[in-house]
């Protein structure tokens, strides 16, 4: 990113890039950076009117959660809105108290979904874009439980992170490729879930931080996990919309620390009847999978930190079908990093 910003022309940048990567990868990196910068400069037409006062009559359902010794109070207006946040945090539910450290309100009004923090408007979107409110809420939650502000993060990666309490590995992949299933299996075999779906990286350490959300498991993986997780059948089935189908949220044991250095990124690819193969992958292929649905700070300093970080880690693609073999493969990789 630094080379891109400093180069006077694209040709100069490309020639410098070609000294580090193949021509094929250089073209991919150039295209990824250009597309990323274009996306960063797109304006989201969602004017916020600061005089939109909170409507406390919408507090039909109230839930309390204890995360990192912090009590969080969230008010929802209906069961549908409850499903956008609560199932992923339900394992941190606690009894109501009068002195929670932070409160959120989520409700639908005039076909829009609103998010408030401590009774001040954070944002709102058309209710069909509920995933945008989920993202806004998660950023607010992560900032509060880690005592950070949004400007402190390099980004939030669309992927799940597993740790052995020494290092961490970020697993990414397209929907249906077995990423969440793999992380659920690893979390039942001596490793710990650091973050599911949203993996936040802090700027000053380049460490990925703890995300309290449970692992979301789609219906297609229920049968795979039931033999390995005794309580899996007892987990409630959640249907938020027909497009996503049934989902179960699998709570996992929290790691001892809130952040760990990430040593590699692995693109997960479940393929029936395939052997377990862990192989190096190009940065172009990795960026094509990582960048969509991830949020990278538009701050040029953070963008450079992100590119620099990629140069220090291993980039892999994992193809698997056998659950025991793939668990052993990842455990061996963690052992390798631990011995270094």
Overview of the molecule:
The protein has 3 domains: 2-40; 56-145, no CATH class; 152-339, Rossmann fold. With 340 residues, the protein is of the alpha+beta class. The two termini are 29 Å apart. The longest helix has 18 residues, at 23-40. The strands form 4 sheets. Strands 7, 8, 9, 11, 15, 16 and 18 form a 7-stranded mixed β-sheet that branches. The protein has a 5-stranded mixed β-sheet with strand order 1-2-3-4-5, with helices on one face. Strands 10-6-17 form a 3-stranded antiparallel β-sheet, with helices on one face. The protein has 10 helices and 18 strands. The chain has helices at 2-6, 10-18, 23-40, 79-89, 130-145, 179-187, 222-225, 283-290, 300-310, 323-339; strands at residues 61-67, 70-76, 102-109, 112-117, 120-126, 153-158, 160-163, 168-172, 192-195, 198-202, 207-209, 215-218, 238-239, 246-250, 259-270, 277-280, 295-296, 314-320. α2 (10-18) packs across α3 (23-40) and α3 (23-40) packs parallel to α8 (283-290).
Report the CATH architecture of the largest domain: 3-Layer(aba) Sandwich
The gross shape turns out to be globular
Please state the average pLDDT score: 89
Q: Helicity, in percent?
A: 25-40%
Run of helices and strands: HHHEEHEEEHEEEHEEEEHEEEEHEHEH
What brief labels describe this structure?
3 domains; Rossmann fold; 5-stranded mixed beta sheet; single chain; alpha+beta; 10 helices; 340 residues; globular; 7-stranded mixed beta sheet
């Amino acid at each position: 990113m630094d080379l891109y910003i400093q180069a006077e022309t694209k040709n100069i940048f490309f020639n410098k890039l070609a000294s580090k990567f193949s021509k094929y990868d250089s073209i991919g990196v150039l295209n990824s950076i250009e597309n990323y910068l274009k996306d960063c400069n797109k304006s989201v037409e969602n004017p916020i009117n600061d005089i939109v006062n909170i409507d406390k009559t919408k507090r039909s359902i109230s839930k309390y959660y204890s995360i990192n010794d912090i009590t969080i109070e969230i008010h929802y207006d209906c069961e549908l809105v409850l499903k956008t946040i609560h199932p992923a945090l339900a394992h941190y539910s606690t009894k109501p108290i009068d002195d929670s450290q932070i409160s959120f309100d989520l409700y639908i009004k005039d076909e829009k979904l609103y998010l408030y923090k401590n009774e001040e408007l954070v944002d709102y979107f058309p209710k069909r874009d509920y995933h945008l409110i989920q993202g806004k809420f998660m950023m607010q939650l992560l900032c509060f439980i880690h005592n950070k502000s949004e400007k402190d993060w390099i980004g939030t990666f669309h992927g799940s992170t597993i740790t052995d309490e020494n290092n961490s590995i970020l697993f990414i992949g397209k929907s249906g490729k077995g990423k969440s299933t793999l992380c659920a299996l690893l979390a039942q075999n001596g490793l710990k879930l650091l973050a599911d779906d949203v993996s936040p990286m802090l700027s000053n350490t380049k460490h990925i931080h703890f995300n309290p959300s449970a692992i979301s498991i789609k219906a297609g993986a229920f049968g795979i996990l039931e033999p390995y997780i005794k309580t899996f059948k007892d987990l409630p089935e959640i249907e938020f919309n027909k497009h996503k189908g049934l989902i179960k949220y699998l709570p996992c044991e929290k790691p001892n620390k809130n952040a760990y250095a990430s040593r590699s990124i692995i693109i997960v690819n479940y393929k029936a009847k395939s052997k377990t193969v862990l192989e190096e992958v190009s940065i172009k292929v990795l960026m094509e999978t990582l960048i969509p649905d991830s949020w990278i700070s538009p701050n040029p300093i953070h963008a450079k930190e992100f590119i620099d970080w990629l140069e220090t880690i291993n980039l892999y693609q994992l193809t698997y079908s056998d659950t025991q073999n793939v668990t052993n493969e990842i455990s061996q990789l963690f052992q390798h990093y631990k011995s270094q």
